[in-house]
Amino acid sequence: MAFIELNGIDAGYEKGKPILKNFHLSVEQGELVSLLGPSGCGKTTTLRTIAGFIMAEQGSVTIGGKDYTNVPPNKRNIGLVFQNYALFPHLTVFDNVAYGLRRRKVEKPEIAKRVTEVLKLVSLNGFESRFPAQLSGGQRQRVALARSIVIQPELLLLDEPLSNLDAKLRDEMRAELSRLQHQLGITMIYVTHDQVEAMSLSSRIIVMNEGLIEQTGTPEQIYESPATPFVARFVGFDNHIDGTLLELGSKGVLVDVEGVQFVSRRPSPNLSKADEGKKVSLFFRPDDTLIGAVPGANAMEVGIDFSNYQGNTTQYAMHLGAHALRAVVVGKPVADGVERTVFSIPPEKLIVEKGA
């Protein structure tokens, strides 16, 4: 049995209108799992159901082999870290971190010992007497993290905890979270809409869409082998062309795109020989596109709408019939001052999915 199991969950904010429908989720002990997806996909609903803030209408919630389906939040040994820190402005750093221990009637000497240890763990020793207003955003997030782990929870739930920080602080806090998770071995479920965050932190990623799980896998599996058109788009396969599947073989697939035959070495596992002759969708990343050079595999002429030089790279907006396409190439413009150019896509960079 997995450490956390959600089985057949129906849950939402209005009775009879579940966001999660017959939802299943398993998380092993010691994993750092990210729930990744756009706003409204059910990530936070899942987190709140595990925490007990939303009671499931159907199904069960099991943590550590115990049934928590109808257990209130204050009876679950779970740490929570929120987007807005949720610190008490009138309490010092020490008192904010000690708050949960005091509510649990922990003895004063033990509180002092554990708060001191956890503040050292998050590199905030020496900040005990400061108030939240005297701290930077990154320091406040560290206080929120310390308050959550000082109670020694079975599970730590994090809901978009870095979204209020600037880019540099987000990078620092990602490294901090990863270090803490490895050091403590605590099970974490991390909600984010940022694929970079999910990729850099997680041992496993669960991509969600409209209350359903689209794909589960390691960061490499999600990034390199998206299982559905939705996942492909979400992890950066922004270019999409429709075609007709001509042939599906052991070495790849052959697709007709407006009379030009495209070859892909990366067919979706959802495709079968029965799909030959049917519409399919081709997905590829902008930075995998080659343009303005000697045509390679999967070459086709496209119109250039505009280019945008950005120093290290140049971005192109292009069109192929009704399809809007993007390309990112290293360095200066390679198709400057022309209205049309040739692009090509290496077969190993082209994903073929059922028609989207």
Question: What can you tell me about this protein's structure?
Answer:
This protein is α+β, with helices and mostly antiparallel strands. It folds into two domains: 4-229, 3-Layer(aba) Sandwich (Rossmann fold), CATH 3.40.50.300; 239-354, RNA polymerase II/Efflux pump adaptor protein, barrel-sandwich hybrid domain (OB fold (Dihydrolipoamide Acetyltransferase, E2P), Beta Barrel). 24% of the residues lie in helices and 35% in strands. It is built from eight helices and 21 strands. It has helices at residues 43-51, 93-103, 108-121, 137-149, 167-184, 195-201, 219-224, 229-234, and strands spanning 4-11, 20-27, 32-36, 58-63, 66-67, 78-81, 155-159, 187-192, 204-209, 212-217, 239-249, 252-257, 260-264, 266-267, 279-284, 290-291, 299-309, 313-320, 323-330, 340-344, 351-354. It has a six-stranded mixed beta sheet, sandwiched between helices. A hairpin with a 2-residue loop joins strand 18 and strand 19. Helix 2 packs across helix 3 (108-121), helix 2 (93-103) runs parallel beside helix 4 (137-149) and helix 3 (108-121) crosses helix 4. The mean pLDDT is 90.
Give the topology string: H per helix, E per strand: EEEHEEEHHHEHEHEEHHEEEEEEEEEEE
Shape: globular
CATH superfamily of the largest domain: P-loop containing nucleotide triphosphate hydrolases
Mean pLDDT: 90
Q: Mind describing the biggest β-sheet?
A: 6 strands, mixed
- Unreliable runs, pLDDT <50, ≥5 residues? none
Q: What would you call the structural class?
A: alpha+beta
- Helix share, percent: 10-25%
Number of strands: 21
The CATH class of the largest domain, by name, is: Alpha Beta
Radius of gyration: 25 Å
Percent strand equals: 25-35%
Instruction: Give me the CATH fold name of the largest domain.
Output: Rossmann fold
